[in-house]
Amino acid sequence: MKKVLILAPHTDDGEFGCGGTIAKLRESGSEVYYVAFSTCEKSLPENLQPDTLKRELLKATNCLGIPKKNVIIYDYPVRDFPKFRQDILENMIVLSRDIKPDLVFMPSIQDIHQDHHTIASEAMRAFKMTSILGYELPWNNYSFRNQVFFPLNTSHVDLKVAATNCYESQKGRNYLDENYIRGIIRSHGVQIGVEFAEVFETDRFIIK
Ligand SMILES: [Zn+2]
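A: This is the predicted complex of the input protein with zinc ion.
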């Protein structure tokens, strides 16, 4: 894949959803772009700087080998994405035109978080000419179709863990627990007879 675009509703969704796969794709020479639609200022504890999550995002994406120029940050208010659906769609249409990605990663279309679901449904409109894979955020998925697997090696897994560890302001969130992250990757590895893997839903796949 030459150009890969990661759509993250909030900072850290992309690292959790496909951090190992980003590391693998970067290693094989893909150019990766990361778009975060909110830095969640409203969700930060009051004693932290408003740009804390932005700084942590830049550290995390750097850790995965994504250059700063390929990180795009929008400022939609957390939990209110459905109100801005049309603006988000228009942002995505511009991203599609300017970047021309070969592959887009987004949250699962079945994700029940309103911001995640908005990103997934608008992405299916904006990127219908592009291969689209949906990533897993298990605490927001009532169900998930295990369809497309990316086998990972230890270094990909370690880079994913290192990237998620960059979110110091989010320490204590149970889904950022290292054992949980490593356990999911190991579990998906067992499903396809390898050591580690990440898994995705496929909403559109174009074989060139
Ligand atoms: Zn999120």
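Helices lie at 13-27, 52-63, 85-99, 114-126, 154-165, 178-191. Strands lie at 3-8, 31-36, 71-73, 103-107, 131-135, 148-152, 196-204.
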